[in-house]
Design goal:
single chain
């Protein structure tokens, strides 16, 4: 675990209210709630938006991107953890501003993040450095291709919606590993993919709304 005590202490009460709201919305995993409770979401936002950091809403970032609402971050990580002892080696596709990577880093010692937009990745590096989360390894690259040099992963979470689950990401799951991704071009749903010794098993969960998962880098 990484302790972030002392950072953003002025937002302690608003973070506490955020966690209470997540419980009311059905998030039950106390590890997940703890992780969101200690990460100061406001530092990942533009200064003009920081006062809205603990609202349960997606908020704008640079380049037309968004930071996911706290409930969605919590729900996706809860799905990753369900019935498992831990996350293990974890890959985040679409690292964005680094917020979800910071939450993941409270739950596992190995976090990798890939982001296709170089200016956004630079922001993520700055944000994570400010929190001294130096063990989160970030890469500028095509998220649809994953990070084969660091595979296999026990957990993969994708913060953008694909028309289908990229095969490259499925291939990078360890046996027993789990992937969570929003899928759909119109109606989007959270999909889990688990790798077994015989192949992959999928499950379908909540309706969601994410920016599209795009190939290439910029």
């Amino acid at each position: 675990m990484n302790g972030l005590a002392g950072i953003g202490m002025t937002s302690d009460r608003t973070r506490t209210r955020m966690i209470e709201r997540l419980r009311e919305q059905g998030i039950r995993n106390e590890q997940v709630l703890m992780a969101l409770g200690v990460v100061p979401r406001h530092i990942f936002l533009e200064p003009a938006m920081a006062h809205r950091a603990y609202e349960d809403t997606a908020l704008p970032l640079i380049l037309g991107q968004t930071i996911s609402q706290p409930y969605i971050v919590a729900r996706m990580i809860e799905l990753l953890l369900a019935g498992r002892a831990g996350l293990g080696r974890t890959l985040e596709v679409g690292a964005g501003c680094g917020y979800q990577a910071a939450v993941l880093a409270q739950l596992t010692r190995e976090v990798y993040g890939i982001e296709r937009l170089a200016p956004l990745l630079a922001r993520a590096r700055e944000n994570l450095k400010a929190l001294k989360l130096t063990r989160v390894r970030l890469k500028h690259g095509d998220g649809m291709a994953g990070m084969p040099e660091a595979a296999p992963f026990d957990s993969i979470v994708v913060a953008a919606a694909g028309a289908a689950v990229p095969q490259a990401l499925k291939d990078q799951l360890a046996v027993g590993g789990r992937l969570v991704i929003p899928v759909g071009s119109g109606v989007q749903e959270l999909v889990t993919v688990e790798r077994t010794s015989d192949g992959w098993q999928e499950g379908v969960f909540d309706a969601v709304r994410f920016v599209p998962l795009l190939p290439g880098v910029a």
